[in-house]
Amino acid sequence: MTNRKKNSIVIKSELESEIFATVNTILNLNQKYQKGILKEIFFQRSIKSATNDLLELNLSLNKHNIVLSKTLNHMNFTDDYYKAIDIINKMSSLSFSNSQFSETISSSILEIPGISSEITASFITLIDALKLDGFDNTELIFGLFKDLKKNFDRFPGLELDKIKLEKIFEEVLQNEEKIVNNKNYRDSLADDLYAVFNFFQKKLNLGK
Question: What does the alpha-carbon distance between residue 51 and residue 81 come to, in Å, rounded to a whole number?
Fold first, then answer.
């Protein structure tokens, strides 16, 4: 067995163990909360922390090209995983006092693969549009930027990327005429976008 394959097996095993532990933490917390053993504020904070751990695990799975559904099937753990997701989603929809729990974050756990594909498609479409010869449709560019920003907001852990994207979008809004008349300027914007896109791909280990 090669070292690379052995390391891959070790990583997969470690991630499975962490998923098992995190999901069981959520299930146990909910059970104790329902029995009145835990106070609401402690339950809320503990579930939020476990949710963040689960998000990090999903990102790690993506990074190592490990499919969540196959991993859960291998662990015979699919039902328990989705019970935990139901708890998270139910919690996010309740009116907890002083709650800062994010429904967007909780739902993103299940949506990460789909959102990453949508972000990739948005980047490619926008970059291609900017590089078109004889371009004269600024409304198309604004719409594509808005779609990209919306998908970014749904994806966790992209704060710096969001700031970079926002700055590019602000520049676009201030230079509508330049976008239409200056192909070099459009090419420069496309290059800036590609730099953000490339960083996004590397973060998910989806690039070559």
Answer: 12
